[in-house]
Amino acid sequence: MQVSHSFAGSCELSVVIPVYNEEAGLDALISRVTASAQAIFADSYELILVNDGSKDGSWNAICQHAARDPRIVAINLSRNHGHQLALTAGLHHVRGQLVFVLDADLQDPPELLGPMLEKVRAGYDVVYGQRIKRSGETAFKRGTASLFYRTLASMVDTDIPRDTGDFRLMTRRVVDQLNAMPERYRFIRGLVSYIGFNQIAFPYDRDARFAGETNYPLRKMIALAVDAITSFSVVPLRFASHLGMLFGLAGLGALVWVVWAWLQGGAVQGWASLAALTLILGSVQLLVLGVFGEYLGRMYMEGKQRPLFIISEVRRHPIAANEEPE
Ligand code: UDP
Ligand code: MG
């Protein structure tokens, strides 16, 4: 496993970072990641930066860094694919025996590589960062995140740890398994839990963003949550039968009451109650159809088997490229 030089087709560590409009923080990111990787692995590492269709100068900046530093691999996606697919693209290019994943905004401190590595050396295959404190995040983000993890846990058999992101150090065999999963609705932290082996949490304080602002507005957070739930659970599909039973029982109760009231001589009247009941029933049926549609749509999209990501350019140091052609 010991390889003296990262150009030799394989190296000890691959760092994978998806980048979307992170120009302002890139220099700081690269210098901090380089410092911590170099301190441990000397030259036997690579830093894979995946530009996910940034609209700012991120790609140019990445290319400049890659031209100066042969350990930097620059990957440009053809357009914005979203965080999880950008990360997937990076993971498909790793050559390291260990893979370190972090965000580009320095919310996950690169300096934790050393302490996380100790856990891997102690026999763990996945060391995932678990947030104790989330600086710079609004109460709303914390609240929705917590609600999401609770809902997910109640629906999913796989034990997906709460308050984790994609910040983690993994061995190559985990990444190989991950890369063998063809699904397009990827909730990577969940897939990693599903893979198993020995996993351990690594509690850390999540810093505030170094520069720029979050690329995860509420809309994307909801989409990620729906991806997570639908790709790990079919529990929502059972809502239909549960709701059916609930409304059936309620209907039966209402029937008994109506008959009883009629026997007492009290006329049961009112179209308002009927209208309300019809509306409620109608909306519940539509809701259930919507849930079915969510699963059906995903099956349809998966069925097309389109590639997960489209790459427009990979810049690797020429020596590395000669030794292991793409
Ligand atoms: N990101 C990406 N594509 C996107 C959105 C985000 O590659 O469409 C990257 C982004 O550059 C960062 C990571 O994904 O490295 C996490 O994004 P962000 O920090 O905006 O999310 P948050 O930390 O607020 O959840
Ligand atoms: Mg962030």
TrEMBL record:
InterPro entries reported for this sequence: Glyco_trans_2-like, Glycosyltransferase_2, Nucleotide-diphossugar_trans
GO molecular function: glycosyltransferase activity
Coiled coil: none
Domain Glycosyltransferase 2-like: 14-177
Protein name: Glycosyltransferase
Major localisation: membrane
Compartments, as annotated in UniProt: Cell membrane
Species name: Erythrobacter neustonensis
Entry's Gene Ontology cellular component terms: plasma membrane
Taxonomic lineage from the root: Bacteria, Pseudomonadati, Pseudomonadota, Alphaproteobacteria, Sphingomonadales
Assigned keywords, A-Z: Cell membrane, Glycosyltransferase, Membrane, Transferase, Transmembrane, Transmembrane helix
UniProt similarity note: Belongs to the glycosyltransferase 2 family. GtrB subfamily.
Membrane disposition: Multi-pass membrane protein
Pfam families assigned: Glycos_transf_2 (PF00535)
Annotated TM spans: 243-263, 275-296
